[in-house]
Amino acid sequence: MKIALGSDHGGYQLKENLKKYLKELKVEYQDFGCNSENPVDYPDVGFKIAIEVKNKNYDKGILICGTGVGMSIVANKIKGIRASLCHDVFSARYAREHNDANILTLGGRVIGSGLAKEIVKVWLNTDFSGEERHLKRLNKIKQEEDKIYK
Ligand code: RB5
To answer: 107: domain CATH number?
Structure first.
């Protein structure tokens, strides 16, 4: 599994902590920045990673800003992206099992790295259930996307 990882300045510290954790888990990742706590605009990093995931250059993405909200808004603009802002383990599990989320967003100013690591572990290790009722709902999203993004 190959992960595209990125943050703005608000998520920089958490991103650096999660990089160490991903190494421990032996999960391959590419860091798309930012590279310091100097202010950068979250759409610049968020769109880049969402497009990489949409193009299937990476299996999944993890995007971190101050709240996780900006990154989630940005990533969900891209066709085929199902970004999930998860600040608890329950949501992380079901974002994968029910929603087949392909991007996780986190708020570096909201949660500590201990909880973030648990969320990342569960989110990465949970498969989409593939159940008919969830497929039907995801298909409805896809159908609307196909109409909107011609
Ligand atoms: C940056 O100050 C902050 O607005 C950003 O990290 C993020 O929280 C936006 O949603």
So the answer is: 3.40.1400.10
- The residue segments making up the domain with residue 108 are 2-148
- Told to judge if 134 belongs to the known catalytic residues of this protein, a careful annotator would answer no
Per the structure, the count of domains in the chain is: 1
- Cα distance between residue 71 and residue 64, in whole Å: 7
Q: Quick check: is 65 catalytic? A: yes
The arithmetic mean of pLDDT across residues 40-46, rounded, is 98
pLDDT in tens, 52-88: 999 999 999 999 999 999 999 999 999 999 999 999 9
**Residue 111 CB–ligand 1 contact under 6 Å:** no
- Least Cα distance to 96 among 131, 143, 51, 136 occurs for 131
Indicate if ligand 1 lies below 6 Å from the C-beta of 65: yes
